[in-house]
Amino acid sequence: MYQASLSYKVLQRYLKIITAASLISFETIEQCYVLTQKGQDFLEAYKNYSKINKNIEKHINYVDNKKKNLEELCSSK
Predict the structure, then answer these.
(1) How far is the C-alpha of 47 from the C-alpha of 20, rounded, in Å?
(2) What's the DSSP call for residue 38?
(3) Can you give the pTM of this predicted structure?
């Protein structure tokens, strides 16, 4: 909660949502939340998505910079 800078109320809401989605489960004996296999699969898919998204953003920024350079060259004449 503290590391994520979440209030207790917000944390409880998130825990309820991800528990309902079966991404985590609460272990009553150990009194802790555990990542489920579905949660592990989700994290892996998100990591892959994030890598792809970063590469796409880099490419878009590169193209945007080249486009701006061309526009500047054309407008200076």
Answers:
(1) 22
(2) H
(3) 0.65
> Is the CB of residue 38 less than 8 Å from the CB of residue 22?
yes
Contacts of 11 (CB under 8 A, 6+ apart): 1, 4
Give the E-state strand segments of 1-77 in sequence order: 24-27, 32-35
* pLDDT tens figures, 35-70: 999 999 999 999 999 989 888 888 888 888 888 888
Domain spans of the chain, in order of start: 1-35, 37-77
The 10 Å Cβ neighbour count of residue 6 is 14
On the 0-12 / 13-18 / 19+ scale of CB atoms within 10 A, 5 is exposed
